[in-house]
Amino acid sequence: MAHANVGRSTFYAHHGGKEGLLLHGLHHLQEVLLHQQSAAPGEPNPPVLGFSRVFFEHVHEYREVFQALRADTCEPVVTRKIKRLVTEVIRHELRRAQAEDHSNEIPRDAVVQFTTDALFSVLIWWFECSPKLSPAKVDAIFRRLTLPALAASGAR
Predict the structure, then answer these.
(1) Distance from CA of residue 7 to its chain's centroid?
(2) Which DSSP symbol is given to 150?
(3) Which residue pairs from 75-82 have beta carbons closer than 8 angstroms and sit at least 24 positions apart in sequence?
(4) Which candidate among 43, 58, 101, 109 keeps its CA 20 to 30 Å from the CA of 70?
(5) Nearest Cα to 134, choosing from 53, 68, 34, 50?
């Protein structure tokens, strides 16, 4: 707080604590992902899950913060918030990619949940096993694992 020239009482009055600050910081991530989605509609066939590379790039840019969150007691709160944010982005992407097909045996909500969990599984794997990989490589791995499953579900 001293580096930012902000007093303790001002910080707590504005953010209510570090959880509030972290949750407020997620607003930037949401803006980045929504901007990526809104940029895609002009394309004739925008890629399904086209936001994923931007997501991994954002996480890479703030990797120290994300790593610190994983070791902090507020991690479950922040992780749930990020997952809800990403789930809504994915739900919107899949709705755009294909209208609801009522003959499909796999419910759309199951596909959305699967895709969100796949994204976070790859993210955790990246942090724990291959932190030196570039965001582009991690995104390619995520897409290679996930897009065939989306195609099989009829969501692509």
Answers:
(1) 32
(2) H
(3) 77/19, 77/22, 77/23, 78/19, 78/22, 78/23, 78/26, 79/120, 81/23, 81/26, 82/26, 82/29
(4) 109
(5) 53
Would the pLDDT of 19 be above 50? yes
**DSSP three-state, residue 103:** coil
- Residue 38 falls inside a structural domain: yes
pLDDT band at 57 (very low <50, low <70, confident <90, very high): very high
pLDDT tens column, 60-116: 988 887 777 777 666 677 788 889 989 988 998 888 776 555 556 789 899 999 999
Domain residue limits at 107: 18-153
CB contact at 8 A, 60 and 86: no
* Residues 109, 127: Cα–Cα separation, whole Å: 27
On whether residue 4 sits in a domain, the answer given is: no
pTM here? 0.76
| Number of domains forming the structure of the chain | 1
Degrees, nearest 5: CA angle 152-153-156 = 80
